[in-house]
Design a protein that fits this description.
Distance between the termini: 44 Å
Shape: elongated
Family: Belongs to the class-I aminoacyl-tRNA synthetase family. GluQ subfamily.
Helix content: 25-40%
Enzyme class: ligase
Number of helices: 10
Order of helices and strands: EHEHEHEHEEEEEHEHEHEHHHE
Strand order of the largest sheet: 3-2-1-11-12
Cofactor: Zn(2+)
Number of strands: 13
Radius of gyration: 21 Å
Protein name: Glutamyl-Q tRNA(Asp) synthetase
Number of domains: 2
CATH class of the largest domain: Alpha Beta
Strand content: 15-25%
EC number: 6.1.1.-
């Protein structure tokens, strides 16, 4: 079966793959294979200072050891600055983005002056100080560039989308996120802009990633609409938790995946995806296990699984509504 499906795994090379990121990689690979599509790997290294040298190659070697080999050569976001600059200029020329001169301290002070600051993942939601309709930079030098999170009439925007696993999702983008950064004060490209531009250029139709990243979807859909780009479908998988009940991550010291025993590592990842059953446990080789896992995934998430199919083209796009 050959379809127009194109999926991707996009790790940030801040450390080697651990059990949680192996689950994410396997899920995206399985979904591509279950739909007869292509599977790509993109190294999301726009935040260069956080990426130790050689970690990207280590991740690619881990994937190869697990039998998860991309169908095309990988992309590196650090080599894609020209494409991001073109997209940013389009948004600036359209009046959808603007320069921001505020420091973190100034944002906190502005929030304090108007009452309790709205916190989001430890960050203050930007109050819109430098928005053009509020006076703009007023002679100050722009440090970052932000995207407007309201509609052209200045009204709040709600983003609605359908997740293949989580179902109907909704977020008040304006109130929950606010005007978010596209280019940082240190000159680095923001993740949201880079991923949207790359997904479109690579023709990504389906994004399969961890549930903790579902919160990125509204910002990416708003950006896709602003740039006139298609919105890939999404399936957000369950998180892998550590012994302390927290998400397994590089930040909390998750150990590198033990790819010297690929069958055991893949079986553990399958269990994290709810695919553990006697058929998988009886696999005698890496290739055998992957074949069985594709079949098990197809029964749950493939075109014939009785769920919304992901083989018929991307979503029509974000569904913005105004409050």
């Amino acid at each position: 079966m050959t379809t127009g499906y194109v999926g991707r795994f996009a790790p940030s090379p801040t450390g080697p793959l651990h059990a949680g990121s192996v689950v994410a990689a396997l899920a995206s690979w399985l979904d591509a294979r279950a739909h007869g599509g292509r599977w790509l790997v993109r190294i999301e290294d726009v935040d260069g200072p956080r990426c130790p040298p050689g970690t990207d190659r280590l991740i690619l070697a881990q994937l190869e050891a697990l039998g998860l080999v991309p169908d095309e050569p990988p992309w590196w976001q650090s080599r894609r600055g020209a494409a991001y600059a073109v997209a940013l200029e389009r948004l600036l020329q359209a009046g959808l983005a603007y320069g921001c001169a505020c420091t973190r301290a100034q944002i906190a002070a502005a929030q304090a002056a108007t009452g309790p600051g709205r916190m989001r993942h430890g960050e203050l939601v930007y109050p819109g100080t430098c928005r053009p309709d509020r006076g703009g930079l007023q002679g100050r030098v722009a440090r970052a560039v932000r995207l407007c999170s309201t509609d052209p009439a200045g009204r709040p925007v709600w983003i609605d989308w359908q997740d293949r696993r989580l179902g109907a999702m909704r977020q008040n983008l304006t109130g929950t996120v606010g005007d978010f950064v596209l280019r940082r004060a240190d000159g680095l490209w923001a993740y949201q802009l880079a991923v949207v531009v790359d997904d479109a250029e690579q023709g990504i139709t389906d994004i399969v990633r961890g549930e903790d990243l579902a919160d990125n979807t509204p910002r990416q859909r708003w950006l896709q609409q602003a740039l006139g780009l298609p919105a890939p479908r999404c399936l957000h998988t369950p998180l892998v938790l550590g012994a302390d009940g927290e998400k397994l991550s590089k930040q909390n010291g998750a150990a590198a995946a033990a790819v010297h025993d690929p069958v055991a590592t893949l079986q553990q990842a399958c269990a994290g995806l709810g695919l553990s059953d006697p058929a998988l446990a009886g696999a005698g080789s890496r290739a055998d296990l992957l074949d069985r896992a594709v079949h098990a995934w197809s029964l749950r998430w493939g075109p014939a699984a009785g769920r919304p199919s992901s083989a018929g083209g991307p979503d029509a796009g974000p569904v913005p509504t105004v409050a």
